[in-house]
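Data follows
____________
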Amino acid sequence: MNLNTFYAVLAMAPPPAGTQANPQGEMIKMVSMIGVMGFVMYFVMIRPQRKRQKALDALLKSIKPGDKVLTASGIVGVVVAVKEKTVSIRSADTKLEVLKSAVSEVTEKAGEGSSSEA
């Protein structure tokens, strides 16, 4: 008899009496593990994303003419006009109108000089 066959025969044997797991306890254990995973998922993924979104919304509401901005596509320009959903920016000799949602960062606020000028 081969050793692998011996292990297969042992695996087919029923478990000894009194060692079976409680099905209700296993269900509670599984549900609690799913709950813990959901809790961890919230604090690792969902909460930081909401925090970033709130900060971006506040940034977009505070944009005013004269601010130097960076768009998501990499265009750097100075805000000329602000409308409800769009922003007009001037980059070099070009005037562009982009959606407010395309603005990813305000690099310099209007009225503030850069720190290298001092």
Observations:
- The beta strands are 68-71, 76-82, 86-91, 94-99, 103-108.
